[in-house]
Amino acid sequence: MNLNVTWAEAWIREGARVIAEHRAELNTLDRAIGDGDHGENMDRGFQAVVLKLDALPAGSTPGDVLKLVATTLISTVGGASGPLFGTAFLKAAVAVGTVGDLDAAAVAALIAAARDGIVLRGKAVVGDKTMIDAWTPAVDAAAAARNADASVVTLLQQAADAAAAGAVSTEPLVAHKGRASYLGERAIGHRDPGAESTTLLLRAAAETAARA
């Protein structure tokens, strides 16, 4: 089974729903090590995306959806989250191109390109206590699933599970990037909010794929 534009739209709508549902939780995580507005910013950005999805032209591709997400997040989300997630979706759009159906290889490439876009923009590496600690395990899990000829649904599920574990792994870390880096050891014990929102989005991708 491949995934088409119907899945891409469903993914983003479900992602917007879960971000809204967890907005307060994301704000609480961010309040401990940042400005306390990660959930608010992400919710605002994805609600703006949903409004634009309603006007998506007929014949659009998954790449068109990803590009729409990218440009909207960059223009509406404050702080670091807009540029980082926006670049992730932009690079993902480039990776999938104009094809109408995404197989497991294409979805693995989508996830890898998203991670690489964040690295390009934010210069973080695994262990810096950022969303990269969720994205990189997701990339590795997706690649392993692809190499094992897993279905696209299984690939996304394993990527989401890996992201969730990666988000948890940020709790004992000292931050080396962003506002949290100013806290030193006081950041220990707190989960990175960007890693958590990454998990929510990848989980939404997997769940909508399972229903496709």
UniProtKB/TrEMBL annotation:
One GO cellular component term: cytosol
Keyword entries, A-Z: Kinase, Transferase
Domain DhaL: 6-207
Keyword Oxidoreductase listed: no
Biological processes per GO annotation: glycerol catabolic process
Gene3D superfamilies, per database record: 1.25.40.340
SMART domains with a match to the protein in the record: Dak2 (SM01120)
An annotated Gene Ontology molecular function: glycerone kinase activity
SUPFAM superfamilies tied to this protein: DhaL-like
One Pfam family in the UniProt entry: Dak2
Protein name: Dihydroxyacetone kinase subunit L
Organism, as annotated: Cryobacterium melibiosiphilum
Lineage: Bacteria, Bacillati, Actinomycetota, Actinomycetes, Micrococcales
